[in-house]
Amino acid sequence: MPSPSHAVAQAKQALGARLREIRLVAGLTGRDLGDLTGWHSSKVSRIEHGRQTPSDNDISTWCRHCGADDQAGELVASLRTIDEMYVEWRRMQRTGLQRLQQAAVPLYERTTCFRVYEPSLIPGLFQTAEYALALMRAVVAFREIPDDSAQAVEARLQRQKVLESSDRRCVVILEEAALRNRIGDVEVMAGQLGRLLTVALRPNISLGIIPIRDRAMWPTNGFWIFDKERVLVETLSAELTVLQPREVALYAKAFTELADLASYGAAARTLIASAIAALDT
C-alpha cells in the first residue's frame, strides 16, 4: 500500500489532471484561462501538475470559465478529501491521547453503520479498559508524548456507548492474528477475548474472523468505514481520511471481499476460544 504522503501527492496530481482535461475540452490554453480568471498562467500550470493546491473558489472559477459548472461540486469534494486525508499523528497527539479520543465523538455519534477491518488489534469499540490502557501506554512510550493514558481510556470507554443504541449497527472483521497478538499480560488478553465473546452476541453487532489458514487476500492496513461518508486508515505515522465517493466505494468493495473470507457464529467463537486456550501455552 502506498504511503499516505505518496497518496496525497497522487490525489493532487489526479485533481490537476482533471482540471487540465476540463480546460482542454473547453478549447482553452493555459494563458487563455489565466486571462479569463485574472491569474498568471504559471498558476494554471502549477495546479494542473499538482504543485499548487487550488482553493474551493479556484475550482469554481476554473469550471465556470470552462463551461463545466456541473463538475465543480465533485471537484471541490475531491479537494476536501486532499485537505483532510493526511494528518500526522504527532500533530494530533502532541498533547496526549485524550483529546484525540474526544475529537472523534461527533463522527461516532452521527454514524449509523460502522464497518471495521482490523488485522492485528481488537478495535476500540470492543476494548476492555485494561487492554486499552496497555495499548495506549505503548503508544505513549513509542511516540514520546505526554502520558494521559488513564484519561484517554476513559474517553474511549465513553465512546463505546454509541453501540448501546439499537439503531446503530457495527460489522467487524478481524484477522485471527488480532486474537493472538498479545497486548498486556495474559490476564489482560483473557479479559479482552472474553469481552469479545460477549459483545459478539449483541443483535446489532456482526463479528467475523478470518482464520490464518484461509487468508487469501493481499495484506492491507486496518480501516474503518463510517456509513458511506468516509474511511479512516491508521498507519504508523499518520491517519488517512478518505472522502471521495469512488475511493470510499473501493474500501467498501475490499470490506465485502474480506467479509467473504471470515467465519461467523459458532465458528468465530471457536477461534476466540482457541486463542484463549493458547494463552496458557
Describe it for me?
The protein is of the alpha/beta class and 281 residues long. The protein has 2 domains: 83 residues, 434 Repressor (Amino-terminal Domain) (Orthogonal Bundle); 186 residues, Endonuclease Chain A (Endonuclease, Chain A), CATH 3.30.870.10. 55% of the residues lie in helices and 13% in strands. The chain has 14 helices and 7 strands. It has a 7-stranded mixed sheet with strand order 1-7-6-5-2-3-4. The chain is elongated, with a radius of gyration of 22 Å.
The CATH architecture of the largest domain can be named as: 2-Layer Sandwich
Distance between the termini: 35 Å
Oligomer type = single chain
Name given to the CATH homologous superfamily of the largest domain: Endonuclease Chain A
Number of helices: 14
What is the class of the largest domain in the CATH system? Alpha Beta
Rg over CA atoms: 22 Å
List keywords for this structure.
single chain; 281 residues; alpha/beta; 434 Repressor (Amino-terminal Domain); Endonuclease, Chain A; 2 domains; seven-stranded mixed β-sheet; 7 strands; 55% helix; 13% strand; elongated
Summarize the structure.
The chain is α/β, with parallel strands linked by helices.
